[in-house]
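[job 4471] stage=fold_predict status=RUNNING
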Amino acid sequence: MSKKTKLEAITTQTTQAEMENALRQAMIKFEYDFMGRGPTEVRAFIVRDMIIVRLKGVLTPAERQLAKTEEGIGMVKQMRQNLLMQGRGQLIKQVENITGATPTALFTDIDVRAGERMIVLTLDRDVSKSLSRRRISLASND
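[job 4471] inference complete, writing C-alpha cells
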C-alpha cells in the first residue's frame, strides 16, 4: 500500500481570512438592505481590536447625479450618515455575531466624488488573538 499525502484540517477554529470574509459578506448585505444596492467591491480587515471596511462603488445613479454639485455632495453624505445610524443596531449585532466581540464605537465617512466609503468599528477586545493563522497542513495517510 502506497503512502498518500492529503490536506487535513488541523483545527475547527476560524481563520482570520474566514472571519474577514464573513464581515465582508455582512457589509454587502447591509448596504443592499439599507441603501438599495450593494457596493462593487468590499474589503474587510481585522486589526487587533478594530475592523476596517473599505467599500467601493457605493453610490446609486441618482447619488452620482447629486454629487455633481457641492450641495449635492453634502446631501449624499448626510443621507448616507443618517441611513447608517438607522441601521447601526443591526450592523453592530452582525459584527458581534461574527466576531464574538462587542463593538464599542463605529466611525464612517464617504468620499462622494470617489464613490468610496470607510467604516471602522472598535471592539471590546483583540479578536485577532483568537483566530487561527493556518487552517490546513500536509499529513501522511497510511
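[job 4471] summary: The two ends are 8 Å apart (CA to CA).
[job 4471] exit 0
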